[in-house]
Amino acid sequence: MRTSATARAGQYAALLAYLVFLAFPFLWLISTAFKPARELGSLHPTWIPRDPTLDNFRQAFDEQPLLQAALNSLLAALGAAVIAVLVATPMAYVMARRPGRLGRAATGWVVVSQAFPFVLLIIPLFLVLKNLGLINSVPGLVMVYVVWSLPFALWMLTGYVRAVPAELEEAAAVDGAGRLRTLVSVTAPLLAPGIVATALFAFITAWNEFFFALVLLKTPERQTLPVILTHFIGAEGVADLGPLAAAAFLATLPSLVIFALIQRRITGGMLAGAVKS
Fold first, then answer.
1. CA distances (Å), 121 to each of 59, 84, 126, 262, in order?
2. What DSSP character marks residue 129?
3. Is residue 195 pLDDT above 50, yes or no?
4. Which pTM value belongs to this model?
5. What's the rounded Cα separation, in Å, for the pair 211 and 36?
6. Is 254 helix (H, G, I), strand (E, B) or coil?
7. What gap in Å lies between CA 75 and CA 86, rounded to an integer?
């Protein structure tokens, strides 16, 4: 009993240390965003601002086109999430219900594609988008995000499809439903938690992505939030810390709000994908 209590206390201590490790950057970001300039340069910094101010937020909006950048990020993230889910769902259904050479080849593609670093992909992607006339455009960035997130989305949804009992589809077939009708009317509603979790993964990946956006988007009116944040760093590498923290804080809010709203569906989706019938 004493050993069990000690082990449990150690587990709680490790969990607490992990939570502190995750929360520290975000709490420091919030504190910095509301500090006036004189506190940011203080030799004795505090967690809670002594004289909270919104000047950093006003300065951030005055210096950079944050609203346009947020709209670009939103369009790119939503487009990538929707298209990735629409494409991956029928592919995952085929891989789960028709195992064979195609399924093994697709699984190998998923594994291999995740091993390639960004640097190896950016040159061929840049040339393809240049030939299509999609450089410095949000639709071109959406195409890149779909290609990048599709393998993992396919892998996730395949596990969720396998968790749906095949007997339900057989019953639908007996009633005269075709494959497409079965997928839309029977399987897809049961996949809702998994689809939501996959869409959220694709959305957050696209929302936070920096490298592709930096290379493919040239003008400020087309750039996304992660790229615009770099504009708060001067040519000599000196950061305008207050406005940068304020802009970064605003950039993290959408992901946190979306996650808080649909966290139950994400949990349900993960549990569903982890169980095979």
1. 37, 19, 9, 32
2. H
3. yes
4. 0.80
5. 31
6. helix
7. 16
Give percent of the chain with pLDDT exceeding 70.
Answer: 87
The two tokens of residue 25 are 């950057």
Q: Please answer whether residues 266 and 53 qualify as being in contact, where contact means their C-beta atoms are separated by less than 8 angstroms.
A: no
Strand partners of residue 233: 239
- The structure tokens listed for 38 are 């004189």
The two tokens of residue 11 are 């587990």
Whose CA is closest to 28, among 252, 258, 255, 260? 252
Q: How many residues in total does the chain contain?
A: 277
Tokens 């769902």 correspond to 89
Tokens of 8: 């449990």
φ and ψ at residue 220, rounded to 5 degrees: -60, -35
Task: Please enumerate in sequence order all residues whose Cβ is within 8 A of that of 66, keeping only pairs 6 or more positions apart, or say none.
Answer: 60, 225, 228, 247, 250
Distance CA 51, CA 54 (A): 10
Please tell me the distance from the alpha carbon of residue 138 to that of residue 27, in angstroms, as a whole number: 32
* Rg of the chain in Å (alpha carbons): 23
DSSP 187: I
Q: Give the tokens for residue 16.
A: 């607490």
Distance CA 226, CA 255 (A): 13
Confidence of residue 18 (pLDDT cuts 50, 70, 90): confident
Model confidence at 45: pLDDT above 90: no
85/127 Cα distance (integer angstroms): 26
Number of alpha carbons in the 13 Å side-chain half-sphere of residue 69: 27
- pLDDT computed for residue 271 by the predictor: 45
